Amino acid sequence: MPLTQNPGMGGAVAEPGLRLAVVAVVLVAIGAAVSAAGRLGHAAGVVRAALRAAVQLAAVSALIAVVLTGLGTSAAFVALMLAVAVATSARRTRAGTSGAWVGVALAAGALPVLVLILASGVVPLRGVSVVPIGGIVIGGAMTATTLAARRALDAVDERRGEVEAGMAIGLTDREARLEIARPAAAEALLPALDQTRTVGLVTLPGAFVGMLLGGATAVQAGSVQLLVLLALLAAQSVAVVGCAELVASGRLHRS
User: Fold this and answer.
1) At what angle do helices 160-168 and 127-158 cross, to 10 degrees?
2) Mean per-residue pLDDT, 123-131
């Protein structure tokens, strides 16, 4: 079925079916073909990522009803999300044996934000609320951690001469590294900043659209989206600062 109006959902929803499958295949083919033509080196990665997403979403769709039945199972699912996020970020960073520090930066960004949101009562302490907000915040922190760590490590490696020059004028090794790592890591915040600045003008992010599809009013959807954007900014800011400090101290390094 194509996009249809579902009165119970308050908006348009994409129904599973042949048309959706065909469009999905075409989108993957476009991504892979363009990546191959542009020699980006990710053509196969686009296909693998799409297949994994399809399998994982199918599995989650089957499990989510069970997961959301209790707060304990929901918390366990969020913990699984965090573990997978840490493993993914550590692998992308290519940090080797120091990859555990990636998890420290990621958790330091995501967990305090989630605790604040849930403990304040702004988001109900129920599985149907905990799992989505947990996934959004952890996912955002994962992206920022990966980008910040990669860019900081690359910058320190590529500009080793500047680090040594800083030490020659009296800076400690950590201070010299931090001068290089901090601005490089800070670039990881640009997507979140741009999304927050342009929300409603350029983009209508997922939380807003999801609330509308679920039958919420525009005001309710806007309130939830604002909370999500501010939570992401807070979590990602902490994660980025953590990555810069860990790289500067030498705890997070390439093997």
Assistant:
1) 70
2) 83
